[in-house]
Amino acid sequence: MTMKYGFGKTIPMDFERAIDVVTEVLKTEGFGVLTDIANTAINLKGHYS
């Protein structure tokens, strides 16, 4: 049995700006970013290209 799940959101800004905005919003809500999203995106880009 294969299960697929997830969610997504398209936002009207470039990737670098989105990282900054999301990181700051998470901080205001009491969350922290434990990994560098940019490095993860670069690694995934090569994997999924």
What does this molecule look like?
- The chain is mostly helical.
- The protein contains two helices and no strands.
- The longest helix is centred in the middle third of the chain and has 14 residues, at 15-28.
- The protein has helices spanning 15-28, 37-48.
- The protein has a domain at 15-48.
- Helix content is 53%, strand content 0%.
- The model has no long low-confidence stretch (mean pLDDT 77).
- The two termini are 27 Å apart.
Helical residue percent?
Answer: 40-55%
Q: Could you give the order of the helices and strands? A: HH
> Could you say which overall geometry the principal axes of the C-alpha atoms support?
extended
Number of helices: 2
Kindly report the average pLDDT value.
Answer: 77
Strand count, sense and closure of the main sheet?
Answer: none
Q: Enumerate the spans where pLDDT stays under 50 for 5 or more consecutive residues.
A: none
CA-to-CA gap between the ends? 27 Å
C-alpha-based Rg, rounded: 13 Å
In what range is the share of β-strand residues? under 5%
Could you give the count of β-strands? 0
Which secondary-structure class do the elements indicate? mainly alpha
Any chance you could write out the topology, listing elements then pairs?
Blueprint: H1 15-28, H2 37-48
